[in-house]
Write a structure and sequence with these properties.
Elements (H helix, E strand, L loop, with lengths): L6 H4 L14 E5 L4 H12 L3 E6 L2 H13 L3 E6 L5 H15 L4 E4 L14 H29 L2 E6 L3 H4 L5 H21 L4 E8 L5 H4 L3 H10 L8 H12 L10 E4 L6
Parallel strand pairs: 1-2, 1-4, 2-3, 4-5, 5-6, 6-7
Helix pairs in contact: 2-10, 4-5, 5-7
């Protein structure tokens, strides 16, 4: 099972997917750990200059240092995606400092799981604000420089929970379902400017969060997955890389499910 310490090694180019992103600037939210870190490292390993966005400046500095040590280019832009006014400022800073914005990956997300009768207003609002309002604001801000350039790749990290629902995740499932709908709509609005907008919907992925479930529950999870294993962060990162490629210009308004066959 992968953990955060394995991500750097596992997300270097493996020979399965290689893309030339030289000269492109990618912004990745939630880039300080987990899937976001894996995505950022993979884009950097394929030539992109990566703008790392998350709340923790210290964690972002660590990720940026690792990318540079591996020969890539990255800059940290600390930001709380719940603070809407900060998002436009971050996008403007990325464009000014790095010279543009070609790829946006909306990965930042949170969970506040509990059954509906126990779910507080705060638990609902926090999840929907982070997982849905944040991506909307980043897409709105990023669309402007992309439209001026008449090129862009936007990839939103959704979830199978947004496609089939999941007990105890009314807030999370609603936010991810909304993100899929937002993806389809914005894709139709921006297609004429040669900007693609797609989503990747992970299933059960090896992480600190899934490790916390314990071996017994993880064994049950694996039994439910036709592939009989958890996914790796690198497999999500490579799906994002595929959608970020210049050659993926005729793929838009799609949701790629990466779940080992879980939802068929």
């Amino acid at each position: 099972m992968a953990d955060a310490g394995d991500v750097t090694k596992k997300t270097q180019p493996t020979g399965r997917i290689k893309v030339d992103l030289s000269g492109q600037v990618a912004l990745v939210t939630g880039a300080s750990q987990g899937l976001g870190r894996a995505i950022a490292e993979t884009l950097a390993a394929n030539g992109a200059t990566v703008a790392l966005v998350a709340r923790s400046a210290d964690k972002l500095a660590e990720v940026a240092s690792g990318i540079r040590a591996a020969g890539g280019a990255a800059e940290a832009f600390p930001c709380d995606v719940q603070l809407g006014e900060a998002i436009q400022q971050v996008v403007d800073a990325v464009v000014e400092k790095l010279g543009g914005l070609d790829i946006l990956v909306n990965n930042a997300g949170v969970t506040r799981d509990t059954l509906l009768p126990r779910m507080s207003d705060e638990e609902w609002d926090t999840v929907v604000t982070t997982n849905l309002r944040g991506p909307f604001l980043f897409m709105r801000a990023a669309s402007r420089p992309m439209m001026q350039k008449r090129y862009g790749r936007i990839i939103n990290v959704a979830s199978v929970s947004g496609l089939i629902g999941n007990a105890g995740q009314a807030n999370y499932s609603a936010s991810k379902a909304g993100l899929v709908g937002l993806t389809k709509t914005v894709a139709k609005e921006l297609a004429g400017r040669k900007i693609t907008v797609n989503a990747v919907a992970p299933g059960f992925i090896a992480s600190d969060m899934t490790a916390a479930l314990g071996d017994v529950l993880l064994d049950e999870v694996k039994k439910r997955v036709p592939a009989k294993r958890l996914g790796e962060a690198s497999e999500i990162a490579e799906a994002v890389l595929f959608l970020a490629a210049p050659s993926s210009g005729y793929i838009t308004a799609q949701t790629i499910v990466v779940d080992g066959g879980l939802i068929g």
